[in-house]
């Protein structure tokens, strides 16, 4: 199967007779292809893959519960051990260090013990909400406690750090929207929304009548993309988009005076080819420059230039930068950069963590804990940074010189920090981090962040609208000048080590690489993601990595290899396919509410990429439609709420099924039948878009199992009952994988329970 992107470059997928992916070829230059191959055992487990540089990673399955060893190209390996019901009981990493896991009777993790006997403890309530986490690590000993309301929403989060306690509190309205956020210092931020659940105002509570506006005047287009907003210091930001919802311009003004003006041009694959950058500096001078970019067939940045800088980049076939300008890089078999042509050398431990950098007479040493988190950086034996992490892996303390700073989070966002000189609170809104309020040695100030399409800080202004800092970057995030502001490239903090903290790991913008391997292993259908050090698929102008785990576009999109991109908006989700067609979750929900159930299911299939346009549909009536997938006809019958009520009346039982896929005969070319049931909830509400998304996607996973023939192989191996249980567990695994993108209340618990029930049933037949 060949997928040709909008720039005319091909990606070719090869499958065996069981529809297992065996090879991917990617065109990186005209008629030049990379080749990645995959091998399987007789029951379909991936046993090895050979990357495009001919390096082999192999997998061993010595347990009925799955993978027991991963062996890397340098012969280092990690091992996995399971308990008698399939929970991961212990893990031995490539350094030989063991991590052990303990579970309760509901298979929830209750303890994690590291090689040094330091232990994490987890406690849950009756609804499986985590209510406490403890860490007995030396130098830490912190805990986190959570409180919930009757709808299982977090209402308070209390952390103890170094004997001090910090509490963040949350309040919600009847529509489940966050309305009040209370900080550890007692500051309260209030959020308001319109009738479409879109934020309209962010303010700091003072007394109810003299509250401080931080952001308001928010306007949206028909797709709920923000077109205008006003900051609390009187500056106004305006945004425009093209027909594919890509930013065309970002402008910041004070009345008629322009402070920032960014204008974008794209190629056919949505790569930015030109950025016209106009900005006012701290001396109020107006500056302008034009940045130009070019890319190879894999959308990797190959050149970038403006009057301030010019860069060229060369890559190997798996995404390692092998040359930047005149400096060349040497890379080993596990994608670790070992040396540069300017004399810089690097060393790594067996887990792939960078432990040393040398250049001339200078040496940098990097130390990690047993969770592979960076804990100390030394330059020529002098400590330049020390880090302590909480039980949930947030970086909660940083020591730089004599300064020791504590950080408090809400989710992944830093809300509050304090040290001996004062405190800072961070306020978030539509544009990410919108403001910072500081109190230093008794003096209080408010600063506003003005960002580009990547959420990189471009200007910082004070409460009077005066520019206090202007920032520009090289393509991979190196600041051109060093100022006081630490919140910089893609909104991440750059500290005294010149590293950016991304949450899961640290990023070295000088090399355009992460210091450590990605905990996630990538996607086989997109081989460039299998490089666990590369930053944003080597396209730092278009993509961001919000937490150091997975790349998305700067507009918060999640994209797959077929060109389907899903992005969250304040009013739901929008999917865009490779042709630029737009499918909105709001439109789908309207079809559900209006009773156009067939149309809603068709749009979800478009959303998921199974149907590209109306021509793919071969038949349609008020209850049924058919379409072609992988050469087979799929027929979907849609049952309205009235149909479901009739079924319940006839069967005299409550109908709980939302979807089902009927099993075709073995070796037949018959059509695959799917049924979708629009059953109303107990409150009388219609099925939501998110529920329909997961229902249709779940049933399509079953359909693909039948069409590929893998289901019948499972029948031969595990009997019909075992195959059905494995089929359901795999489909629910898809639901779980989709939850970070699209979810609904109770989904995580439901899908987890169903997956566990079916995987436990399947194991009876091994």
Give a brief description.
With 766 residues, this protein is mainly beta.
Describe this structure in words.
It is a single chain. 13% of the residues lie in helices and 44% in strands. It is mainly beta. Among the domains are: 1-37, no CATH class; 51-124, no CATH class; 125-170; 173-286 and 413-495, no CATH class; 564-708, no CATH class. The strands form 6 sheets. It has a 31-stranded antiparallel beta sheet, with no helix packed on it. It has a 13-stranded antiparallel beta sheet with strand order 32-33-34-35-36-37-38-39-40-41-42-43-44, with no helix packed on it. Strands 55-56-57-59-58 form a 5-stranded mixed beta sheet. The longest helix has 29 residues, at 710-738. It is globular and about 75 Å long. The two termini are 34 Å apart.
């Amino acid at each position: 199967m060949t997928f040709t992107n909008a720039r005319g470059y091909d990606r070719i997928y090869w499958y065996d007779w069981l529809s297992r992916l065996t090879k991917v070829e990617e065109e990186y230059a005209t008629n030049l292809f990379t080749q990645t191959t995959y091998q399987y055992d007789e029951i379909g487990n991936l046993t090895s893959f050979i990357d495009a540089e001919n390096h082999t990673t192999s997998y061993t399955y010595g347990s009925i519960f799955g993978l027991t060893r991963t062996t890397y190209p340098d012969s280092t390996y990690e091992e996995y051990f399971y308990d008698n019901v399939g929970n991961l009981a212990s893990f031995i990493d490539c350094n030989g260090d063991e991590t052990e896991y303990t579970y309760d009777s509901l298979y929830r993790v209750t303890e994690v013990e590291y090689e040094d006997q330091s232990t994490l403890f987890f406690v849950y309530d009756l609804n499986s909400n985590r209510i406490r986490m403890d860490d007995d690590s030396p130098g830490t000993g912190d805990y986190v406690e959570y409180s919930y309301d009757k709808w299982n929403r977090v209402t308070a989060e209390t952390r103890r750090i170094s004997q001090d306690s910090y509490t963040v509190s949350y309040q919600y309205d009847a529509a489940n929207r966050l309305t009040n956020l209370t900080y550890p210092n007692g500051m309260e931020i209030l959020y308001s929304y319109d009738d479409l659940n879109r934020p309209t105002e962010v303010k700091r509570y003072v007394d109810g009548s003299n509250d401080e506006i931080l952001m308001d005047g928010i306007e949206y287009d028909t797709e709920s993309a923000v077109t205008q907003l006003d900051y609390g210091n009187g500056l106004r930001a305006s945004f425009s988009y093209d027909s594919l919802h890509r930013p065309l311009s970002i402008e910041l003004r004070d009345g008629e005076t322009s402070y920032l003006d960014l204008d974008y041009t794209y190629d056919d694959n949505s790569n930015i080819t030109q950025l016209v950058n106009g900005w006012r500096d701290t001396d109020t001078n107006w500056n302008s420059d034009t940045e130009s970019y070019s890319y190879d067939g894999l959308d990797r940045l190959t050149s970038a230039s403006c009057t301030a800088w010019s860069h060229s980049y060369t890559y190997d076939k798996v995404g390692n930068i092998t040359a930047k300008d005149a400096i060349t890089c040497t890379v080993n078999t596990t994608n670790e950069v070992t040396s540069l042509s300017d004399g810089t050398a690097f060393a790594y431990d067996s887990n792939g963590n960078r432990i040393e950098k040398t250049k001339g007479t200078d040496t940098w040493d990097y130390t990690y804990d047993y969770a592979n988190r960076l804990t100390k950086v030394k330059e020529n034996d002098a400590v330049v940074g020390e880090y302590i992490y909480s039980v949930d892996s947030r970086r909660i303390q940083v020591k730089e010189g004599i300064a020791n700073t504590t950080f408090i989070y809400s989710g992944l966002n830093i809300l509050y920090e304090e040290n001996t000189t004062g405190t800072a609170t961070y306020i978030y809104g539509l544009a990410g981090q919108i403001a910072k309020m500081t109190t230093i040695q008794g003096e209080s100030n408010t600063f506003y962040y003005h960002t580009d399409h990547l959420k990189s800080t471009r200007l910082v202004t004070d409460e009077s609208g005066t520019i206090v800092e202007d920032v520009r970057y090289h393509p991979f995030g190196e600041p051109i000048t060093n100022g006081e502001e630490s919140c910089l490239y893609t909104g991440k903090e750059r500290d005294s080590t010149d590293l950016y903290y991304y949450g899961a790991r640290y990023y070295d913008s000088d090399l355009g690489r992460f210091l450590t391997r990605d905990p996630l292993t990538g996607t086989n259908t997109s081989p460039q993601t299998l490089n666990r050090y590369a930053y944003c698929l080597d396209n730092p102008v278009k993509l961001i990595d919000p937490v150091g785990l997975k790349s998305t576009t700067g507009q918060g999109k999640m994209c797959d290899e077929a060109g389907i991109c899903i992005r969250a908006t304040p009013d739901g989700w929008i999917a865009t396919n490779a042709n630029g067609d737009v499918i909105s979750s709001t439109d789908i929900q309207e079809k559900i509410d209006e009773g156009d159930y067939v149309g809603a299911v068709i749009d979800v299939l478009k959303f998921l990429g199974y149907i590209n346009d109306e021509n793919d549909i071969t038949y349609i009536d008020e209850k049924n439609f058919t379409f072609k997938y992988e050469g087979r006809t799929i027929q979907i019958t849609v049952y309205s709420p009235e149909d479901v009520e009739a079924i319940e009346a006839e069967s005299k039982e409550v109908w709980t099924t939302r979807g089902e896929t009927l099993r075709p005969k073995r070796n037949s070319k018959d059509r695959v039948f799917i049924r979708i049931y629009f059953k109303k909830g107990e409150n009388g509400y219609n099925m939501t878009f998110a529920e329909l998304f997961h229902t249709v996607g779940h049933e399509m996973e079953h359909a693909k199992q039948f069409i590929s023939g893998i289901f019948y192989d499972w029948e031969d191996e595990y009997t019909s009952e075992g195959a059905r249980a494995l089929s359901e567990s795999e489909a629910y695994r898809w639901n779980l994988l989709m939850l970070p993108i699209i979810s609904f209340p109770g989904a995580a618990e439901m899908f987890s329970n169903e997956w566990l029930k079916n995987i436990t049933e399947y194991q009876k037949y091994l």
